[in-house]
Predict the 3D structure of the following.
Amino acid sequence: MAKIIGAVGTSHIPAIGKAMDQGLEQTPYWKDFFDAYPPVRNWLNEQQPDIAVVFYNDHGLSFFLDKKPTFAIGAAPEYTNADEGWGIQPIAPITGETELAWHIINNLIEDEFDVTVCQELRVDHGLTVPMTLLWPNEEYRKIKVIPVAINCERHPMPKPSRSYKLGQSIGRAIQSWDSDEKVVVLGTGGLSHQLDGARAGFINREFDLYCMDKLVTSPEALLGYTNADLTETAGAQGVELAMWLAMRGALEGDVKLLHQNYHIPVSNTGAGLMLLEPS
Amino acid sequence: MNAARNPLDTVTFDGPKATQGYNLNKMCYSFNEASSREAFKADEAAYCDRFGLTNEQKAAILKRDILRLLELGGSIYYLAKFAGLLGLSVQDVGGLQTGMSTEAFKEKLVRAGD
């Protein structure tokens, strides 16, 4: 059966991609952020996963409000991206995966997660920034990716507990797939931030660190939050905790924390990094 | 329930807001494409009209009034594309919304880490 070798939680802020494009990693603003990544890259190099299941949210590239899925999953051989309106340098296409994707889709429907299935999808910074951060220099192209998009844009959004259960269901599906492939799960986005309104710039370090702690030891402690709670405590875009919860849900039972970092600010955001292994 | 504005001075982008702002957001969504950005820059008001923005939404676009655009149903994700078209970073937009200079806004973010 396929094996989940571990999981990574990481920021997906567009400015990270720009900083990498411009070679700013060792400048004072960025150094502490980027210096946290080599241990995760080294672990990925040692472990050599074949497939990455990536929980992310689309920020209005592929999905507009005309058809906005609550949960969507990709089953395409390749994913392209675009400049998103900001002149971001698009990256070379992401390699897709379809066999495990369809196995997950079948299992999700069986599990009563009636997910939207995408055989064509443009992926934005929510997915591409983590890929280039974890596998720089286009090394990400050797990893086969299954994108899973969670609506974090328009209320109503899935309850945090529901995103966790989605992750659990996907985790079970991966482990029931008849294959020797090694799978890593990525949760992207967050942590606390708010881009909009008079409260723009709101960050909550204490809450972010609390969440990172609970994600390791007892994720159930976070499942009682509503999206309104997260908006209040972690900012309007703090609801992106959903992807970290889904990532943690995919790892059944106890986990070992191999590496973590938390840095403020990256752009408008508290930036978290976490590497977990099943124990 | 009129939940558009909560005590945190944050406009919740929910169903009613998505209905109110649909055309505005659709216009900003079009800015994903470079050709649309050029068309907007060539004649901003005409481009707003093409998408059927209300007069209030059009006026707020022309004035770059982000707070007003949020009140009129704009989603920050699509307004971010409008800001990008104008060459503004999210810190610039943060400054505009909070009445601070970009530098002061950036300093506030750094202080959040202390």
